[in-house]
Design goal:
Layout: H1 3-23, H2 26-30, E1 33-40, E2 44-46, H3 48-59, E3 62-78, E4 81-94, E5 99-113, E6 116-130
Parallel strand pairs: 1-6
Antiparallel strand pairs: 1-2, 3-4, 4-5, 5-6
Length: 147
């Protein structure tokens, strides 16, 4: 598979992640991860089965979600491996009718497993959030020291 095809396939994995979360489809969402993948959204969880069990617990707090992914950058690191970074804005409608917004990025490692590019690991980092206090690692901040 050439680099262009790899980039397209991995981009599809990234976009499918958002689509399956917003549809509430835990099974299809989990299939985007390797069998022994690690997902870290403030607390690392390992294994596809554990990752699949996580989504319904996260989504039960919201009546609707919409995830928008941008700034996708992918680096091929080997014949069956790659790393990537992408940015996310996620809107959530809480059960009380108020909104929760999240701005962050995904730090990914991909592996080609069972004929598909899947997440070997995905770490979520936040730039900021409004409407809900969550425990997700912060993107490292810039220093404002004067020289």
């Amino acid at each position: 598979m050439d680099d262009v095809a790899v980039h397209a396939a991995i981009t599809d994995t990234i976009l499918s992640y958002a689509e399956h979360v917003d549809a509430g489809d835990a099974e299809q969402w989990a299939q985007l991860f390797c069998v022994d993948a690690v997902f870290d959204e403030g607390r690392a969880i390992q294994g596809r089965a554990n990752i699949e069990a996580l989504l319904p617990n996260l989504l039960k707090l919201f009546s609707a979600t919409a995830h928008y992914v941008s700034n996708i950058r992918i680096n091929r690191t080997g014949p069956g491996s790659a790393s990537g970074i992408s940015y996310v804005y996620a809107w959530h409608r809480k059960l009380d009718g108020t909104d929760f917004e999240f701005w962050g990025r995904y730090l990914d490692v991909f592996s080609f497993e069972d004929g598909a590019w899947r997440f070997a690991s995905r770490k979520v980092e936040q730039f900021g959030a409004r409407g809900l206090n969550i425990k997700v690692d912060q993107v490292p901040r810039r220093s404002h020291e004067r020289t």
